[in-house]
Amino acid sequence: MVDVINLADKLTKFDDLWSPRVIAGINNYQVKLVKVAGEFVWHQHDDTDELFLVVKGELMIDFEGETICLKAGEMVVVPRGVRHRPRAEEECHILLLEPEGLVNTGDAGGALTADNDVWI
Amino acid sequence: MVDVINLADKLTKFDDLWSPRVIAGINNYQVKLVKVAGEFVWHQHDDTDELFLVVKGELMIDFEGETICLKAGEMVVVPRGVRHRPRAEEECHILLLEPEGLVNTGDAGGALTADNDVWI
Lengths: 120, 120
Hints:
By secondary structure, chain A is mainly beta.
């Protein structure tokens, strides 16, 4: 009745970068996994905070005037309205928590905008 | 400006069991860490789903007619209104995601009801 969700197993189910997959819903929020490498676009989400938890590798997030580095087992909440750019020198796997329907590129749009609500 | 939250570091900051500590807020949700061992009380949350992600050890969750076992790197969403009882044979560390203000013992109350909104 209640599914056990194994993160490592879910991460074997896709390989494309910057393309979040939904692995669980909690009320009107979703937990997603995403694989990233290289630079994402600068963007912001005006209506919601966004949580990043690094599962594997190292994630940099640039803010205006500051860059943070997150290793596996580290997380950050990017507050709503704060402009940011995720990037990773090598492939990095991240767990995201955000409201249903969030567009990954926020206000920026563009080629890296991923399909939404893709479950694995 | 934006804090990096290290799960292992946060877990060094408390030792008491069944007493969730808040480590991050995302909109009106909170991410918590909790250390557990032994049996919790049977209870349910009628108004919200609840996410459990095991960080260390092994967590059992009893449901009416089923028991699941979660190892580190595994998670589950317990749907609202579903009666459940977490337990662990040995100490187990869990990340929880739930709305602000959730009472850990749900409808059951009792001695294991923890203070709410305790940040570390």
